[in-house]
Fold this protein.
Amino acid sequence: MTSRFLAALFTTVVAFTGTTAASRPQGDAARGAQIYERCIACHALKRNRTGPKHCGIFGRRAGGVAGFDYSDAMAASGTVWDSESLDRFLEAPMDAVPGTSMGYDGVKVPQDRADLIAYLQSATADSPLCR
Amino acid sequence: MFDLDKPSFLSAKLGRRQALQRAAHLTLSGAAVALLAGKDALAADHSAMKGSAEQDVRILNTALGAEQEAVAAYQAGAECGLLRKPTLGLAVQFQGHHKEHADALAATVSKLGGTPVAPKRDYGFPVSSLKSEKDVLQFAAGLEKGAVSAYLGAVPIFADRELAKVAASILGDEAMHWAVLRYALGENPVPSAFVS
């Protein structure tokens, strides 16, 4: 009974969140670099623009870039950016953090998000792009 | 690299003096005025659904910030000394479009009861990495492509569908900028049937 309940709960959670770490597709950083071109009206790796810079994003608290004027909602979200939280946010930013200034519908295709996150991981770690 | 004096390009070509005159006499274009016409009623409607209006204002302000940056980017491009005629005239013309977008967006934010974001004093453009006209055009093309994606991502989420129409109208203009810049770079101006 308990196991059936847990299974049902897991199914509900997966249905609600869309994907789990295990079910997320493997990302292709090279393809993610092309998808990142969708972001560059507002974002850059090394400098704050309409949106905050991405260098150092993994492990950073949302609202944590010094000198960037975040929405109250983002600053108070308590999110720490990792693959999972990025996947959730990028799918539907305004649902993930209601009140965010990121007025964007989201990256709807799971493979696109995985590729984008793979690119961000490779580009924002200890890479020449962030030095 | 390209020839803007080809007949197909003549209609898009703009003399620098004419473009500067346009930039100096900024007013909302007829299209923008038409798009914003009737927004008093829109504002009244929004007051009845405050949360949606606030969300729309946030989206508009984000777009406004990007447009202000585009204006500054074209200014930096025009002042870097790397652009020659007729490319320079084209850059000034596109800058004028972005100014019109920014004016229309700011006016709409105000009409909806919001406060338009102010332009930044310094955008920190990577001007030291721009060594040639091609570099400048590639930089501009990247921003325009990003703008197309940004508006594409904004159109579906406006609570007010009239605002979505305004955003789609601007998207079309940004897409034309991107295509013209790609043509100027010697690239396929329309590389695919869809944008993303």
